User: Fold these one by one.
Assistant:
Number 1:
Amino acid sequence: MGAEANPLSGPLSAVARSRIPGATGISNLKRLSGGASQETWSFDVATADGLVPLILRRAPGGARDARATAVPLETEAHLIRLAEKADVPVPTVRHVLAPEDGLGHGFIMDRIAGETIARKILRDDEFAAARPKLARQCGEILARLHRVDMAALPPLRTSPARSEIKQYLETYKAHGHPHPVFELAFRWLQDNAPPEATAHTLVHGDFRHGNLMIGPDGVRAVLDWELAHIGDPMEDLGWICVNSWRFGNIDQPVGGFGAREDMFAGYEAAGGIKVDPARVKFWEVLGTLKWGVMCTIMVTAFKSGTDRSVERATIGRRSSETEVDLLRLLAPRG
Amino acid sequence: MQDQPTAAELVEAVAEFIRNHAMPQLQGHTAFHARVAANALDIVKRELEIAPAANAGEEARLKALLDREGTLEDLNRELCARIESGAIGLETPGLTDHLWATTLTKLAIDQPNYSGYKRAVEEGR
């Protein structure tokens, strides 16, 4: 679809001319991804100094993300700006959409060059020099992210361990199919939940491949802040260690590219609290279970007819991957 | 008794057709979905071959573990309820052996190339 034929093109061009200094128009508008309630668009703004590559994230027609845990796009933009001030690598937010912009809810940010696809980052030669540095970098970035000033945060849900467990237990029970390994994991998590007393911080909530823009020099930007909340900072360190995000590199626990010790060292060196590996393991178990529950509930959309794609159908058969990972964590053999 | 070829052989033939003949003619998203469809048929083929004996074994283990009769689904629901209540746990003799056997069978059908499965098989040797 050409930019001329796209109904977004006119309003977006007007927004760019009024909000981006020196902008004369837009080009190369194309949809990158998105579900029913959220869209990501790539476009370039023409200026006297050349093209400025940008991204529009928006929910059309005032639509809000249906997931109860996702933050509004205005909040996401606010968090990205706070993270930038805390020296977390993020795309600079250029403009938060206002009602008079006629584009719904959303914001415009810089488009950072790089790769988010795990298999390329973990296999391609161009990232070979970056890979050994990534685990430590992730630790450093998370330490800075967790030090974002709590007093400056927009309203966010607070979700410590016990409420995360409760939320996913309810989701699993509503689905109805029996998973004895999930029951065992829920029981273990309830019996091993860390004490509440720890200081809460901003938590990214989805810090893993797909949401990390990576170049040959390392992590360039942390994306997709929609699952951000207030909670235990160790949640982010555990989530990136879930085996599902190692993409086959099982012996490199951090995202398939590095060692836990490197991430922990980077975290502590950049001002993070002293890492308790047992606490991180707790969040890895919970993260593995969360992904397993998410895979099983995908079946609901398939069976109800909402999404009859083969892709949706088969993801239900990936929940067993998390069951083997949970057993290796909770009842290792050999 | 049904005639030849077996259900597993028919499914295998369709998966081969998709991979070797249909996919090369397709592009983009449709080609991707054709690959996913062939993978789904592989799951069906493995389930046809593996599940009958594996389900019988699972049922026998559950009856022994729970000391009751029932369908495979009833028994699994009962096991879930007893784990949730704490009546059965990691320390219960036979539980982890049962869960390992059941889970490894699921993976042998669903995703035999999954890293966690391959590692678990090595660790069990």
Number 2:
Amino acid sequence: MWSFFHKLGSPPWLYSISGVILRWLLPITLVALAVGLTWGLLFTVPDFRQGNSYRIIYIHVPAAVVALAGYYVMAIAGAINLIWKMKMADVAMKSAAPVGAALTFVALLTGAIWGKPTWGTWWVWDARITSMLILLFLYLGVIALYEAFDNKEAAGKACAVLCLVGMVNIPIIYKSVDWWYSLHQPASIKFTGDSSIDTSMLYPLLLTIAAFYALFTCCLLMNMRAELLQRGARTSWVKKLALAGKST
Amino acid sequence: MHPVRKQRLYLVLFVVLFSSAAIGLVVYALSGNINLFFPPAEIAAGNAPVGQPIRVGGMVVDGSVQRSDNSLAVRFELTDYEATVPVVYEGILPDLFGEGQGAVASGVLNDEGVLQASEVLAKHDENYMPPEVADALEKSGYDEKGNAK
């Protein structure tokens, strides 16, 4: 059990195990994405009030859900780096930021595209949308802050603190529609009680959410592998890989 | 756990709790300003400023929408089932605007308590269902949560 965690600290071991995971996870992710999006975008029934425009839910909701979860991944990796000084946690934190930023951007963009025909406006400064924009700035802030330091250890520490402080935004985003009067509707999928979305629309949505989680994991691992190679450019294990001409 | 690591763990927990508390208090203090709109009950209670741009949100009262024959002018009432605010507006309404649906109107409240709206947005609720299910619910006389209408 503990030896597994100790091995995670070794770049060559992490590089090879992530390669094995990706070889299985990447095809599964692509199939789940293709099936979920085709099912949701083409084969579900239209909504009784919004017609076909509601279908953007199959991209908007998964992107937003995983953007929030991804922030926790980034912040927890940052905390592990602060407490245990684990270099691989720093790699994970740095690699999670651009993936989370991209997902947040997708959620904001699809929301605006849906908002124009549904609400009658592209953008409104309500609590949910504004706090989501703050999340995008937090992700971009982590990326920028990391690059602003020459000393990578100091960069990791500063970013980890920023991640931890920004973590308070996640429950605010999640509960904003319940705490304040906002234009954005409350959540349709409920963990307790019945969801207020019909099951024929719910199942493809759950599949796309799972697929986006897997997509986040794949992108995170691929980013981490690139970062490991870059950091280890002068080490013997990377030289050995390069000379062998193998990618995994 | 190693004492130095334990100390760093406490420091991290302190940073998280302290910053959450600080931001939580700021958000709590700003609560009134974070609300996108006033519900009609707050306006009836006199909590909304008169003569300043505000937003009012609620359900469009059934049968209250009156359209002008020769212009885009429209008059309707917004309610939260406690109080009602009349709204006048001239312009294009969003597709999802309708009686019995949620809407948010932004404009200025005049002395008679009528909102002169410059923008009307439709507010969508969290219910998603196929048209057939909506029809069936309509016939059965129950809403989507199983309550009699």
